[in-house]
Amino acid sequence: MAKKSVTSTKLFVLDTNVLMHDPSSLFRFEEHDIYLPMVTLEELDNNKKGMTEVARNARQASRNLEEIVGTSLNNLDDGCPLAINGNKHLSGRLFMQTSAVSIDLPMLAGSKADNQILGVALDLQKKQPERQVILVSKDINIRIKARAIGVAAEDYFNDKVLEDTDLLYTGMRELPANFWEKHSKEMESWQDAGRMFYRITGPICKSLLVNEFVYYEYEKPFHAIVRSQQGNTAVLEVVKDYTQHKNSIWGITARNREQNFALNLLMDPDVDFITLLGQAGTGKTLLTLASALTQTLDKKIYSEIIMTRVTVPVGEDIGFLPGTEEEKMAPWMGALEDNLDVLNKSDEDAGEWGRAATQDLIRTRIKIKSLNFMRGRTFLHKFLIIDEAQNLTPKQMKTLITRAGPGTKVVCLGNIAQIDTPYLTEGSSGLTYVVDRFKGWQHNGHVTLVRGERSRLADFAAEAL
């Protein structure tokens, strides 16, 4: 019986990058054991200095290790229990390398850290043949080398929100052709403050989420948003049609169904947090800015617009930039300038002077901030736009969203197919994380924009290249 319990649990050898990517990874292996080679501890020590995210994580990982090892007075060869603090459900143990490993890997050069970790994994495999030894690393090359020498290797998946980003919530769903036949029984409809509501009962209601858009595109098109959902009933509100000129926002009208849904969310005072996903040219920034200007300058709901983005260069960096925080951020804010040009031209009757005056007024109301100085701030009655949010880690995303004080609306824009931050993937991006965690909350809205509206050239390039 004892032998079975030994073989059923796995032994995971951790590479340093796993700990530096997610310091809490030590508590994510449940009943399995963890083994740390001495090189991993050395590399943690080498990376602990500085203010970067990696250095912070290295220090946190070291603190976690001290807590695990510090509580255990027994021999390290027997392992230290991982069940500390609030992690009582863990039954695995932490083992450290306590003696030198003499496995020679003639085909791998020198005493490089990666090769030492591979040597340790191979040695463990020989010493414990009845047990599955698996190397866990975020580094593709070490995983390939491990497989070449016969050691099982895996990526660290625990931080992934979704295995497949195709399953990510889109914020809308198409209603089936037989929708009215199945759901019109006991249907109620009423009007309130010029808005049309329907209470429907039927099987589809169970799967609907609050603030999810539904559309019916058959003989009589119907576009609505789910306002509440309980068991088999849901209340739908017919969306406002922003494709018509009379409903234009700062001279901008929606060009397709998804843009119309996005404007409904952006103009809704009850929605505090919005995520807009979509490839280049789908109109994310333009729609957000148009609605922000309308609600800041015309309706005076917000006192100012704050725009920020992650400064990750696509090519080589251009070095230090002179000037104030606003001036340093200016090269990153080309997208903002381009969209303001479009919004300024939308007012045909204003003339040259009128437009210049509007431009100055807009400039005073839009503040450009760097992400680096957001800690400890609180934004009251502000319209906060986070551009290129796919480059944020879940932790950075939390730091930003928790800045929101009363009366503040936060809008995250991004395209998860364009991640420039190393070690972040579509599944572990902060943007994917918030879309998944916030869905169904009554003050959250999300739309995935599909159609590019830039130009025929941009649309063709997005598809063909």
UniProtKB/TrEMBL annotation:
It holds the Pfam family PIN_4. InterPro entries: P-loop_NTPase (IPR027417), PhoH (IPR003714), PhoH2-like (IPR051451), PIN-like_dom_sf (IPR029060), PIN_dom (IPR002716). Coiled coil: none annotated. It comes from the Bacteria. Gene3D superfamilies: 5'-nuclease (3.40.50.1010), P-loop containing nucleotide triphosphate hydrolases (3.40.50.300). Keywords: ATP-binding, Nucleotide-binding. Residues 10-144 form the PIN domain. GO terms for cellular component: cytosol. GO terms for molecular function: ATP binding. PANTHER family: PIN DOMAIN-CONTAINING PROTEIN, PROTEIN PHOH. Belongs to the PhoH family. This is PhoH family protein. It comes from Methylovorus glucosotrophus (strain SIP3-4).
